[in-house]
Write a structure and sequence with these properties.
The protein is an alpha+beta fold. It is built from three helices and eight strands, in the order H-H-E-E-E-E-E-H-E-E-E. It is globular, with a radius of gyration of 15 Å.
Length: 141
């Protein structure tokens, strides 16, 4: 069973970096401006990350030719997807969930910088049960 309190603490500084970017840049810019600001803030805070990481899913241990590219992988196990859209929807969340599941990462964050009050959602993946959990510990499916 995943330790949600430990995972919440693990993502705390990454969430802080996202907040700092939004506080500095405000609403209404495009996604790439926020991504660049986030990369600068992660470097400033000394948080290790990979930007636009490409990966190939596997089938029964064999790498497939299909490729995906996530916005950020922070600390080696936190997937971060940055959006600048009028509203987050199930399709955008599914993108994050699939990345988490395929990479078996325990933490995922989707942030929408577009609205007046930005929206940030944290999710957790329990690799034992293969369940995606909300920050409250409720299963997503």
């Amino acid at each position: 069973m995943v330790d949600l309190e430990c995972l919440k603490a693990h993502v705390f500084d990454v969430v802080g970096a996202l907040r700092a970017v939004r506080d500095e840049l405000g609403p209404g810019l495009n996604e790439y401006c926020y991504q660049e600001g986030f990369a600068i803030e992660l470097e400033r805070m000394g948080i290790p990350f990979e930007r636009e990481r490409t990966f190939h899913p596997t089938y029964k241990g064999v790498a497939m030719s299909a490729a995906y590219r996530l916005d950020f992988l922070c600390k080696g196990d936190i997937v971060v997807e940055c959006k600048a859209v009028p509203e987050l929807n199930a399709t955008l969340r599914a993108q994050l969930f699939n990345y988490m599941r395929l990479l078996k990462t325990p933490c995922g964050i989707i942030v929408n910088f577009y609205p007046k009050f930005y929206k940030l959602e944290r999710y957790f993946f329990d690799s034992e049960t293969r369940e995606l959990l909300t920050v409250e510990g409720n299963p997503m499916w």
